[in-house]
Amino acid sequence: MERNLRKERIGVITSNKMDKSITVQVTRRVKHPIYGKFVTKSTKFMAHDENNDCGIGDTVRIAETRPLSRNKRWRLVEIIERAK
Questions:
Q1: Which residues pair with 12 in a beta bridge?
Q2: Separation between Cα atoms, residue 13 and residue 53, nearest integer Å
Q3: Where is the signal peptide (predicted)?
Q4: How far apart are CA 55 and CA 66, in angstroms?
Q5: β-strands 59-64, 72-81: how paired?
C-alpha cells in the first residue's frame, strides 16, 4: 500500500522574528464562482526553520509534517530565492 505524499507549498516569508520559526504567506489565484473573475487569496503558515537562515521576503518551499507546536505543522524544505 502506497502512502500519500506530503503537501508542499511555495510562499514568501513575512516574519522571521521567532527562534527556529518563520511565517510563510502562500498566495493562490481562485476563480470567483459567480463572476468568473480571478481573486487572489492568501494563507499564512507557521513553518519550522531549524538553522534560522531565512530572511523576510525570501521565497521558500515548505512541506507538511507532524505537529511541532500549537500552530506549527510545516517545515522548511528549501530557499528558492533570497530577497534582493
A1: 25, 59
A2: 12
A3: none
A4: 24
A5: antiparallel
3-state secondary structure of 58: coil
Residue 51: C-alpha distances to residues 23, 31, 48 (Å) = 15, 38, 9
- DSSP-derived letter for residue 49 is -
Residue type, 78: E
pLDDT of residue 28: 96
Length of the chain: 84
Only one residue has cell 502506497, namely 2
Q: Which of 12, 9, 42, 15 is nearest to 27 (CA)?
A: 42
Residue 1 has a pLDDT of: 76
Cell digits of residue 57: 521576503
**Would the CA dihedral through 63, 71, 48, 57 be positive or negative?**
positive
